[in-house]
Every structure is written in C-alpha cells, then in structure tokens.
Amino acid sequence: MPEVTLKSWIMVLTLGCVWGASFLGIEVALRGITPFWLAEARLFFAALLLTGVWWALGGRINAADDGRNRWPYLVVVGLFSSVVPFFLLSWGQTHVTSATAGVSMAGVPLLVMPLAHFFSVGERVTPMKLLGLVIGFCGVLVLLGDGLMQSSGSAMEGWGRLACLSAAGCYAISSVTTRNCPPIDPYAMSAVVMIIAAGVGLPMAWAVEGPPPLPDHQTILVLCGLGLVQTAGANLLRILVIRSAGSTFMSLTNYQVPFWSMVFGALVLGEALPAGLFVALGLILTGMALSQWSHLKRLFGKA
C-alpha cells in the first residue's frame, strides 16, 4: 500500500522544481548540440553517475531474494521512462508549440490514474482524487493561456502532437511498472534503467542524426548538469517516490513542471510571466491537495 509522508511531499515538490529547470538547460544546450544527441548525452552522464553510486554501495540488485524476475520490469522502465519519451519529445517539439507539449506532459496524471486503478494495489480512483486531478489540469491550462490556441504551422503538426501524447503515455506506463516491480534496491533500479536507456539511445541518435557533434565547453557543462541533476538525481528521487507513495502521487509532479519552467525562464532569460500565473498556481496546488486529501488528513492528524 502506498504511504504518503511529509518526506514524500518534499521529494515531489523538489522534483517539480528540478524538472521545471531542465527546460532552461535544454534551451541553452540546443544552441550547441542536436536534439537526439542532447537526449543521449543526458542519459549517458546520468548512467555514469548512477552506476558509480550503485557500485560504491555494493552493486546489489535484489532487495529480497524471493526468486522473482526483476529484469522485465527494469527493461520496460528503462525504455518508457527515459529513452523513448526523450526522443519522442525531441522530435515532437520541432513540429508543435511549447504549449502543446506542456499540456501533453500535464496529462500524465490523468493517464496514470486509470492504469494505477487497475494494475496497482492501493491506488484506486476516488471522486476526490479525480476532482483534484481535473482541477490541477485546469490550472495548467490557465498557465499556458493563449498558447493553447496557436498552431506551429508545421505540416507535421498532427504527428508532432501524437508524439507528445505518446511520450506522456510512456511516462504513465513506466510509473505504474516502477510501482509494481518486485522489491529491489532503489539505487540498483535507477542505475540499471539508465544504463538500458543510454544503451538503446546511442544507436537511435546515431541513426537519426549521424555521428555525435563536438559541442563547445559551455554546452558540455550544461549537458553535465542536465545529466547529473535533472536526469540522474531526479530519476532516483522519482523511483523513491513511486515505490513508497505510489505512481498517482508521483504524477502530480507534471502539474508543477510548466509553472517552474516559466519561473526559471523569467528569472534567468527575462521572459514575460503570464498574467494568470498565480491563479494557475492556486488551481494546481488545490488540485494536488484534493487528490491527496485522505493522505493529508492522516499526515496532519499525526502532527
């Protein structure tokens, strides 16, 4: 059964901030590297760090020797949590507006909810949870504002939208699979899935964009940050949250990402903030609270 604690809330709020900042890093990195090689660089640096940490802690796989095979779960999570959605988004965002991509990612909680209801123990859909998720999604719509009505003008826009929605579906599948995986050391899981993702991503990037480009020093530093913090660190936090608090709770991160990406864009790049920023934030926070109302009552009841 999932257990949502104060630590769970701190981790999921941290994840929203970290992943929101990744859009800033991606925008800077794309000045010196192509999209698919950017995704592969993130996976490569993340795999290096997580593998080093895993081996330093003993390099074990099973948290319990119960005879169950973890590898099918690890392969699915490796493919659907990183490499496939990274590449789908990299391609899709060349044909759609950023608002379209943002709504697709904000739809992850609504996709996770029915999957978790049928395939995860203790994550049943309740009216309060559904209401909270819908209100949070409305907050994202307010945040993205007029951009939702804009067309990119690309002849491939329809396929771009499908790619972004497919990426959201990948994240939903990987979240539920992570939750249902038999007991496993979280450091092992985070390292192995990233090794799988980096291994699959390398030939994909080479096939689509040719040999890797030689980026400048600034781009390399940004790629290291994206790989070590936004990919490696965030992936470990993501696994810890899902394994303890559940995939539906973890999916609330996706409502925060558009908000933080706009805040960091304003602070660092001087981009204008939308007029409805605080209305949107209020809806997002209200939705998050309502969707986890039973856990919040237990949490504050203990305080």
Automatic annotation (TrEMBL):
The chain crosses the membrane at residues 9-30, 36-59, 71-92, 98-118, 130-149, 187-208, 220-242, 262-290. Keywords: Membrane, Transmembrane, Transmembrane helix. It is a multi-pass membrane protein. It is found in: Membrane. The keyword Transmembrane helix applies. The keyword Membrane applies. It holds the Pfam family EamA. Residues 10-144, 159-290 form the EamA domain. Belongs to the EamA transporter family. This is DMT family transporter.
